[in-house]
Amino acid sequence: MERTSKFNVGKDKTDRTFDGIVFDSSVEMRYYAEVILPGVEDGRILKFERQKKYILQPSYTHCGKKVQPIEYKADFYVVYADGREQVIDIKGCPDAVAKLKRKMFWYVYPNIDYIWVGYSRLDGGWSTYEAIQSGRKERKKLKQAKAKEKKDEQQKSEHKRKGKKCTESID
After folding, report:
1. What is the Cα 36 distance to its own chain's centre?
2. CA dihedral in degrees (29, 33, 35, 39; nearest 10)?
3. In degrees rounded to 5, what are phi and psi of residue 112?
4. Contact 75, 88 (CB under 8 A)
5. 42 SS3 class
6. Residue-wise pLDDT tens digits, 99-127
7. What burial letters (b/e) apply to 37-54, b meaning 16+ CB within 10 Å?
8. Per-residue pLDDT tens for 18-32?
9. Left, alpha or beta for 67 (phi > 0: left; psi -120 to 50: alpha)?
């Protein structure tokens, strides 16, 4: 069995290579193939860059030692036909570092539209991470409500059954 990284990405690059480009994940590759390229072809996207680097905190010296900068590499930087610019990061399940870097990005680059995008078949395909999370929460609430309803029905039926036994033994 092939070992995968903590991000569930295997060493075999064939399943995440498209047009000779090796992507960090197969989901990122799918976004490129299904959203970016068609957008370029139909003119909605004027230009894009992959792995564009942003400095979230510059390097500095502390007690005589150089501290490296905190950098962030965007999955996609996109310029749309209407002039909007957007930084897109493809996310499945963000870790604490991703959440921290997102906060830093918003602080350092407040005028850049930065979004997380994911794919959810249940939510209709490509959507913002927040919309996917919202859909998951809603489905979880519905599932819990159905489970509670089923449990309540089982308890009612159990009480009715026990109630009949009691009346039968009294007669």
Report:
1. 17
2. 140
3. -100, 130
4. yes
5. helix
6. 999 999 999 999 999 999 999 888 889 99
7. eebeeeeebeebeeeeeb
8. 988 999 889 999 999
9. beta
Rg value, the chain, Cα: 25
What is the enclosing helix (H) or strand (E) of 112? none
Tokens 């979880």: give the residue.
140
Residue bearing tokens 């489905």 = 139
| Residue showing tokens 């308890």 | 155
The residue whose two tokens read 């960090």 is 24
pLDDT tens digits, the chain, 171 residues: what are they?
555 544 455 677 888 899 889 998 899 999 999 999 999 999 999 999 999 999 999 999 999 999 999 999 999 999 999 999 999 999 988 899 999 999 999 999 999 999 999 998 888 899 999 989 888 898 999 889 888 888 888 888 877 777 665 555 555
Cβ atoms of 128 and 88 closer than 8 Å: no
How big is the CA angle at 92 (ends 19 and 128), to the nearest 5 degrees?
Answer: 90
Whole-angstrom Cα distance, residue 108 to residue 97?
A: 16
Question: What is the rounded distance in angstroms from the CA atom of residue 12 to the CA atom of residue 132?
Answer: 28
